[in-house]
Amino acid sequence: MDFKAKDDLDVPIEDAFDLLSDYDVFERMAMRRGIEVRRHDAGQAVSVGSSWTIEFNWRGKDIKMRAQVVEFERPDVIVLEAVMPGMDVVVNFELVALSRKRTRMHLIIGVSAKTLPMRLLVQSLKLARGNIDKRLQDRVQSQCRNLEARYRQRETA
């Protein structure tokens, strides 16, 4: 099952890619939400093979996930693969230059269940698809505005 969202940024594609691949910022955002994030290759530049262990509580259960960068093609594509008990998730960011100073970001999240409880979860997600798509689109738009603000801060600094 795939979830898709897109939005446009007033940021050149190279800068959008740099901001999107600044994982330290996203790690701090997750930690502020109570999610524990540990990077396995800390201190190195993010590239194919970079990986994290992510632990969070979801619906009263402690979930441990391992995420890894599986594709990293500057300035167009970043693909992350996350594996957790019973489910695999692939997160695909695609950037398309609309002009010299404007970029479109496509987000595609592919979810595949491996166990019966996770298949039931995915089935319930299908039933709530409209609501989930809207919330995902809102989140992507919010993150794009965040990336634009960070770009402006870097330009004025």
Structural descriptors:
157 residues; Alpha-D-Glucose-1,6-Bisphosphate, Chain A, domain 4; globular; 4 helices; alpha+beta; 7-stranded antiparallel β-sheet
Describe the protein.
This protein has helices at 13-20, 23-32, 116-127, 129-156; strands at residues 2-9, 36-39, 51-58, 61-73, 77-84, 87-99, 102-113. It has 157 residues and is of the alpha+beta class. The chain has a single domain, classed as Alpha-D-Glucose-1,6-Bisphosphate, Chain A, domain 4. α1 (13-20) packs across α4 (129-156). The longest helix is centred in the C-terminal third of the chain and has 28 residues, at 129-156. The N and C termini lie far apart (42 Å). The relative contact order is 0.21.
Classification by helices and strands: alpha+beta
Q: Percent range for helical residues? A: 25-40%
What summary fits the major beta sheet? 7 strands, antiparallel
**Strand arrangement in the largest pleated sheet:** 1-7-6-5-4-3-2
Q: What is the count of distinct domains?
A: 1
- Judging from the principal axes of the Cα atoms, what is the shape? globular
- Beta strand %: 35-45%
- The whole-number mean of residue pLDDT values reads 92
The low-confidence runs, each spanning 5 or more residues with pLDDT under 50, are none
Oligomeric status of the shown chains?
single chain
CATH structural fold name:
Alpha-D-Glucose-1,6-Bisphosphate, Chain A, domain 4
- Element order, helices and strands? EHHEEEEEEHH
Number of helices in the DSSP assignment: 4
How big is the Rg?
Answer: 16 Å
Name of the CATH homologous superfamily: START domain
The top level CATH class name: Alpha Beta
For the record, the CATH architecture stands as 2-Layer Sandwich
